[in-house]
Amino acid sequence: MKVLHFYRTYYPDSFGGVEQVIRQLVTATTQLGVNAEVLTLTRNKQQLDIEFEGHRVYRAPLNFEIASTGFSWAALSKFKRLAAQADIIHYHFPWPFMDLAHFLCGIKKPSIVTYHSDIVRQKQLLKIYQPLKRKFLQHVDRIVATSPNYMASSGILNSFRDKTEVITYGLERKIYPQSDLGLCAQWQAKLPEKFFLFVGMLRYYKGLHVLLEAAAGTDIPIVILGDGPEERALKEQAKILGLRNVQFLGALPDTDKAALLMLCYGLVFPSHLRSEAFGITLLEAAMYGKPMISCEIGTGTSFVNLDGETGLVVPPSDPTALRQAMRTLFDNPALAAQFGQQAEQRFESLFTAQVMAQKYVQLYQDVLRP
Is the same domain home to 124 and 209? Predict the structure, then answer.
């Protein structure tokens, strides 16, 4: 069975949550006998098609972007050729150019869509895109929602309920760097003994401005790992608030991220808008057995982090509630340890890459069945 994954960005150009999911899915389904390939766009015009972690990544040069939607004329011919060789096309939504490519290339192959997120921010452009989006989702064979929470709260998914099923994300421990005790010791010497960790791109929907407000007036150490478009504004806010208990580390390699996940007391994940559809970082924290704090935004974040079982869930954009949640866990090590243990147990039962891959392979077989 040959499966072609199609998404706008992928490793090694980009390391976001959807890219991580595709990477984990390709690796895990390959172990189950699937021949999986990826087609994506790239700014690197010198090196196009590459091998990455044992699978083929086909890359077309990016021509331009409109509202974070990449366009590539070369991708159309490449997609048509690769689709002809595949048994199944696996689309990763949202990416409006992908919808266009599906129709322009006359795709007739069995197709599924993993619906990673609604389009939240570009409301005016969404009105223009809406007819194409609906036609595309009507045309594909099956749609996958990534959590029951997102399925229940997404209007567009509910309108296609008859052909939508839920398959949650999963991670493979072996892909992550193994414990480096030397590196852990280096970080331990630089950081407080107990600290909350945030990991992710510093984007508008991550709620980090709320986290900084919550940190004000406390002695709770917070470490922020990642960079992004909001970095300058957040550092300025921290300066204005006079925060000495918050450290910005910038972007770091996976080895450092793994060390920090091992060392942290817990994960704080203050995303306050629906643009945060799942939160791969929450899965990573659960995999490392850490208690979590997140916000109730009607998405997969509250499926991964169950309030009172794996951590605490607070209202979004509420610095007082977020501060109280951090204080509760910080002052109750036994409770934090219990939540962390239960988070890891839940990860092992629901969120491994093997569980995800088995469900997708079953879906592939169902779609191919005459």
Answer: no
- Overall domain count for the chain: 2
The encoded tokens of residue 150 equal 């997102």
Which of 181, 9, 2, 207 shows the shortest CA–CA distance to 90?
Answer: 2
Asked if residue 370 lies in contact with residue 334, where contact means CB atoms within 8 angstroms, the answer is: no
Q: Is there a single domain that holds both residue 36 and residue 149?
A: yes
The pTM of the full predicted model, rounded to 2 decimals, is 0.91
3-class secondary-structure state, position 87: coil
Residues 78 and 48: their CA atoms lie apart, in Å, by 12
Q: Kindly state the DSSP code that residue 171 receives in the 8-state scheme.
A: B
Measure Cα distances from 223 to 17, 61, 228 in Å. Answer: 20, 36, 15
- Give the whole-angstrom CA distance, residue 254 versus residue 171: 14
Cα separation of 29 and 306, whole Å?
28
**Which CATH number is 229's domain given?**
3.40.50.2000
Over the Cα atoms of the chain, what is R_g? 21
* % of the chain beyond a pLDDT of 90: 90
pLDDT above 70: residue 119: yes
Of the candidates 182, 188, 179, 147, the one whose C-alpha atom is nearest the C-alpha of residue 165 is 147
Q: Are residues 209 and 341 in the same domain?
A: yes
pLDDT at 170 over 70: yes
Domain that holds residue 98: 2-172+352-368
Considering the domain architecture, whether residues 224 and 168 belong to the same structural domain is answered as no
- Tell me whether the omega of the peptide bond preceding residue 148 falls within 30 degrees of 0, making it cis: no
* Residue 117: DSSP 8-state: -
Q: Taking residues 93-110, what's their average pLDDT?
A: 96
Q: How far apart are CA 231 and CA 236, in angstroms?
A: 9
Centre a 10 Å sphere on the Cβ of residue 54 and count the other Cβ atoms it contains: 9
Rounded Cα distance between 313 and 297, Å, is 10
CA 356, CA 169: separation in Å to the nearest integer? 6
Instruction: Specify whether the CB–CB gap between 99 and 14 falls below 8 A.
Output: no
pLDDT at 124 > cutoff 80 = no
* DSSP state for residue 307 in the 8-state scheme: B
- Which residue type, as a one-letter code, is found at position 340? G
